[in-house]
Amino acid sequence: QVQLKESGGGLVHPGGSLRLSCVASGGAFSVNVGGVMGWYRQDTRTERELVASISSGGNVMYAESVKDRFTISRDNAKNTVYLQMNNLRPEDTAAYSCYAQGINGPGGYVSEVRGQGILVTVAS
């Protein structure tokens, strides 16, 4: 079974930075993520928002609210996607979850898998 595991969240002051990581794994079995990887976020007041995504070839997309502050990247060999978040604002506070598409894993092909999410809190 393929799972995504996020890390790097926490509490940061406004203007600070955090780097989120998300790795796809199949336990004792290897996996390969051939499709898009990305990040969603959601808090209690808003609908889920697609923050950023990146294709296996490196094409990226950002929500307008995070452009010029967030940078998404991935390491295909490690099946890992990163989200570098700079100049964080209180409105960036949310649960951030990653997703991966087009995964070949121990159970065969999986179209999409999502992580459980990690909390990012931006506060003074």
Q: Count the DSSP helices.
A: 0
- Approximate helicity band: under 10%
Mean pLDDT: 94
Whole-number radius of gyration?
Answer: 14 Å
Q: N-to-C terminal Cα separation, in Å?
A: 40 Å
Indicate the structural class. Answer: mainly beta
Order of helices and strands: EEEEEEEEEEEE
Poorly predicted ranges? none
Largest sheet: 8 strands, mixed
Shape from CA axes?
elongated
Q: Strand tally, please?
A: 12
| Share of residues in strands | over 45%
Fold and architecture overview:
By secondary structure, this protein is mainly beta. It has strands at residues 3-7, 10-12, 18-25, 32-33, 37-42, 49-54, 60-62, 70-75, 80-85, 94-105, 108-114, 118-122. The chain is built from no helices and twelve strands. It starts with a strand and ends with a strand. Strand 8 (70-75) and strand 9 (80-85) form a beta hairpin. The strands form two sheets. Strands 2, 4, 5, 6, 7, 10, 11 and 12 form an eight-stranded mixed sheet that branches. A four-stranded antiparallel sheet has the order 1-3-9-8, with no helix packed on it.
